[in-house]
Amino acid sequence: MTTILSSIPQLSAVDLFANNTTQQMPLGSYVETSDGRGFRYCKVGGTSTVAGKVYQSSALDATNYQPSGGLGVAAAAIGDTTVTISTSTTIALNALAGGYMSVDVTPGQGYLYLIAGNTATAGATGCVITLADPIKVALTTSSKVIVTPHCYSGVVVEPGTPTGVIVGVAPSIITNANYGWMQTFGATSVLFTGTGVAGKAVGSLSGGTSGSAAPAIAATNILGYHIATGITGEYALVFLTIH
After folding, report:
1. Which one-letter DSSP state was computed for residue 137?
2. Is the Cβ–Cβ distance between 43 and 174 less than 8 Å?
3. Where are the domains of the chain?
4. Which of 32, 58, 103, 243 is 20 to 30 A from 186 in CA distance terms?
5. pTM for this structure?
């Protein structure tokens, strides 16, 4: 798999409420219905989704994936498609497949690479990350990287205050560890906390009911805009703009 450009398809004879035990398409694939609602393909974490609740990526891992200062690497030449981590990590086999590696300390900083897979480590150095695209700027032992699984791999309900990237609102029940669709754009029904005003911005909740949206305030994510007045504890009509 390499990084490629693709157009936005429309859903045709696809059941948005179906979910599968096997992956049917790349994570994060975006599709739209004819009425303009947008959805991304995801894998659910260990708990089945609840319709109308806000979901996020798996929690950020500041020890094994994104430590302050980054992860050390062995030197890698231009054209190489593997990078060996020299920092001790605990990472499951292919946990990063479909995710990303960012070079955060030069040489090579600013480049993002799609990850095809990785070897397993358990409190040890030597995790080998296989990239979908070759290295563009040579890495040295001074380079540092951070990594992440795909944002739509192992999604979990937003826990009241986000600990990951907000990925959308569940339109239906997706069984734990299964694959299905997460809504990111257009009209939806979403659990709401607070008092919302039609036309005003809706954000992620900062401290409170898990899976709930709330009136947008400073330092929260903008999820969309009210279609109608939002009432606390009820499911509001919101126009999502996560995309």
Report:
1. S
2. no
3. 30-58+158-241, 71-148
4. 58
5. 0.91
